[in-house]
Design goal:
about 400 residues, alpha/beta, Rossmann fold, formyl-coa transferase, domain 3, 6-stranded parallel β-sheet, 3-stranded antiparallel β-sheet, elongated
């Protein structure tokens, strides 16, 4: 059960039921839980959300699941069973938001379309998350993150000139989860004015398509698209990784001509390069990036990474460490700002980052990651179920699951 706390959170009193798996919907609902919403995660009895089995990297638990399922309650229901569907409908009568990212058409077949639910529960907000949306020729296609990265053109601009590369995280799922989250917040505000729930249809393709806005416009009206440039920027130069004389890598970025002049003056100590006709605007530097890269690497070759960073800092040029995961775990800025908390899981405590954004009015909710079905009995008791009826549901779920 959610805990009480002195300072109210923005979504205290809001109840969310989620038929969710994988990343998109769980990421959406975890953010609602962060803000105080009670999130009841409906899972299959036994195995639960299949993301629980993705790996065993966190005390024997899945890394994906641990990341996006804290502060939730797990209700195990086999929705093929009539008694389980009765429980779900009874629960929906008490809640504010339903989120689902089941296979295309699955929710509608169970009577969980917005149209069917709105007649019974006019204040209920229904958010459907899918690969391609509720209609159109791709409506019934299965959609996984990599497939959407491909459909949205993300792979065409990511990687090296020879090899396209997927993002190392589930960007399409995360994009869809973010837009579901913000649309639900908007729908709650709208309902406060109108008294009516609304239907939200979030597509992974449309979410990632929005994030592809810059390269789409860069290639407007048949213009060449941004090239794949590895870790370098596709249209700004110098902007990316450069090797130092000691073999270290320095990541740096220039955004304007003032920074370019300071870079030539104070970092490269070659002020005449700023006036070189090949390099005197970003467009020309981008056209002649191989020649400029040779100049930079030749000068950086006489310095170690620490010396280069010192020069970049002195010149006011943006730069960064090329961290791995252990570097991020130990990042001094996250530690200095007190961004880490401890969260319980079924296998023991783990560290967890606070959600982005500091708000002086409330504290984020950072509660346990649930075991499958951990809260089933307690939730059903809240709904007025007797021990005998709960037992009958458990027997039916066992036979059906």
């Amino acid at each position: 059960m959610p805990s009480t706390q002195a300072r109210p959170r923005p979504l205290d009193g809001v109840t969310v039921v989620s038929l969710e798996h994988a990343v998109a919907a769980p990421f959406c609902t975890r953010q609602l839980a962060d803000l105080g919403a009670r999130v009841i995660k409906v899972e299959r009895p036994g195995a639960g959300d299949f993301a629980r089995g993705y790996d065993q990297r966190v005390r024997g638990q899945s890394s994906h699941f641990t990341w996006i399922n804290r502060s939730k309650e797990s209700l195990a229901l086999d929705l093929k069973q009539p008694l389980a569907r009765d429980a779900l409908m009874q629960l929906l009568a008490t809640c504010d938001v339903l989120v689902q990212n089941l296979a295309p058409g699955a929710a509608a077949r169970m009577g969980l379309s917005f149209q069917a639910l709105h007649e019974r529960f006019p204040r209920l907000i229904v958010c459907d998350i899918s690969g391609y949306g509720a209609d159109g020729p791709y409506r019934d296609k299965k959609a996984y993150d990599l497939l959407i990265q491909s459909e949205a053109g993300f792979l065409s601009i990511t990687g090296t000139p020879d090899t396209p590369a997927k993002a190392g995280i589930s960007v399409a799922d995360i994009a869809a989860g973010m837009y579901a989250y913000t649309n639900i917040m908007s729908a709650l505000l709208l309902r406060a004015r109108t008294g009516e729930g609304s239907h939200i249809d979030v597509s992974m393709l449309e979410a990632l398509g929005e994030w592809m806005g810059y390269p789409m416009y860069y290639a407007y009206d048949g213009a060449p698209p941004p090239p794949r440039t590895g870790a370098s920027h596709a249209s700004i130069y110098p902007y990316g990784p450069f090797t130092a004389g000691d073999g270290g890598t320095v990541m740096l970025g220039l955004q304007n001509e003032r920074e370019w002049q300071a870079f030539c003056d104070k970092v490269l100590q070659r002020p005449e390069l700023a006036r070189d006709a090949r390099f005197d605007s970003n467009a020309r530097r981008n056209e002649n990036r191989e020649a400029l890269r040779e100049e930079i690497l030749r000068l950086f070759g006489a310095l170690d990474a620490r010396q280069i960073v010192e020069r970049l800092d002195a010149a006011g040029i943006a730069n960064a460490s090329v961290n791995d995961m252990q570097g991020l775990w130990a990042h001094p800025q996250l530690r200095a700002r007190g961004r880490w908390r401890t969260v319980r899981t079924p296998a023991g405590d783990v560290p967890a980052l606070l959600p982005p954004g500091l708000n002086n009015a409330f504290d984020y909710r950072m509660e346990a990651v649930p075991a499958v079905g951990e809260h089933t009995a307690a939730i059903l008791v809240e709904l007025g179920w007797t021990a005998a009826r709960i037992g009958a549901l458990a027997d039916g779920a066992g036979n059906g699951g």
